[in-house]
Design brief:
Blueprint lengths: L1 H19 L10 E6 L5 H16 L3 E6 L4 H13 L2 E6 L8 H9 L4 E4 L11 E5 L1 H16 L3 E7 L5 H14 L5 E8 L4 H14 L5 E4 L2 H13 L7 E3 L5 H9 L5 E3 L2 H18 L8 E4 L2 E3 L7 E2 L3 E2 L2
Parallel strand pairs: 1-2, 1-3, 3-4, 4-5, 5-11, 6-7, 6-8, 8-9
Antiparallel strand pairs: 10-12, 13-14
Main location: other
InterPro entries: Peripla_BP_I, SBP_2_dom
Protein name: D-ribose ABC transporter substrate-binding protein
Length: 318
């Protein structure tokens, strides 16, 4: 019996060492649930794929699903994560206000939540909120856009989903730069909800109302690419310059071809991986290893000059 007891103690001690060993998942393993917005958009597809790969690398099982920006769907997915005894949730929140309840529900079930890409309007709930520095990225894009279109003329803007703080942050960032040029006048704007088809249709409407525009500044790449399609149909792409935001593969190709003047790369591959690493650290040590809950990741301007340095998904060569 003493020998068996000694073996048991030894086994437990070895298990404790395994838990503490860096770079390995905690001894219990477990399910890490990853909830993105809409994987039909390459940005969110990359977000989910990178988080999934990193979690598996660290020894977790994973479940990747999508809310499609709907808070009811998101809430149901959180319920499923709770039912399936997830050890952590990586969440791209559907709504800055509307997702707070879903996060609280997970926390009440003792499941730590790590937010990526978008924020919620309440601090102290999620263990981490990892997002692009959208204000910095918008300033980069708007500064480049002015160089392309010049300092005089009428332009329009395509806006992302109003429920996503990123949409307002980018639009405000654009305005901070563009308002310095009084002869650049924004004559119209449309909400296209980050969507390429809506970007196309809203661009058609804007062109009908404002046929003399010289440029389009867009809150993301999919809306910009939709606008480019509409401008091509109208025979106006050569005279109307379009700028994007995300750094999606399609956008980078459009930059290379000259159809899109630039895109602003969001380092989604970097912070999606980082979110999983912080979840892993928290599960092992009770700490994320980050200095604060909210973490900003600077964006990078991609133009025709450096587009060849782009490596999919959403990264630049080191």
């Amino acid at each position: 019996m003493k020998k068996l007891a000694l073996l048991a103690v030894t086994a437990l001690s070895m298990g404790a060492v395994a838990v503490a060993a860096p770079g390995q998942a905690h001894a219990a393993g477990g399910l890490m649930t990853i909830i993105v917005n809409d994987p039909s958009n390459p940005y969110w597809l990359a977000e989910g794929n990178v988080a999934d790969a990193e979690a598996k690398k660290l020894g977790y099982t994973t479940s990747v699903s999508a809310s499609k920006g709907d808070t009811n769907t998101e809430s149901n997915l959180i319920d499923t994560a709770i039912t399936n005894h997830s050890v952590a949730i990586i969440l791209d929140p559907a709504n800055a206000n509307g997702s707070i309840g879903a996060v609280k529900k997970a926390i009440a079930a003792n499941i730590p939540v790590f937010l990526v890409n978008a924020e919620i309007n309440q601090a102290g709930l999620a263990k981490a909120q990892l997002v692009s520095n959208n204000a910095q990225g918008a300033a980069l894009g708007a500064t480049r856009w002015v160089k392309v279109v010049g300092q005089k003329g009428n332009y329009v803007e395509l806006l992302g989903s109003p429920s996503d703080n990123n949409a307002a942050t980018r639009s405000n960032g654009y305005a901070t730069v563009l308002n310095q040029y009084p002869d650049l006048k924004k004559v119209g704007e449309q909400v296209a909800n980050w969507d390429r088809t809506q970007g196309h249709d809203k661009m058609q409407n804007l062109l009908q109302a404002h046929p003399d525009i010289i440029g389009v500044i867009s809150g993301n790449d999919d809306m910009a690419l939709g606008a480019i399609a509409a401008l091509k149909e109208a025979g106006k792409l050569s005279s109307v310059k379009v700028g994007g935001f995300d750094g999606s593969p399609d956008a980078v190709e459009a930059v290379k071809s000259g159809e899109l003047q630039y895109t602003v790369l969001q380092p989604v591959a970097v912070f999606a991986k980082k979110a999983v690493d912080e979840a892993d650290s928290f599960l092992k040590t009770g700490k994320t290893g980050a200095p604060s809950e909210k973490q900003l990741f600077n964006c990078v301007l991609i133009t025709k000059a450096n587009a060849g340095d782009f490596v999919s998904p959403f990264t630049l060569k080191q």
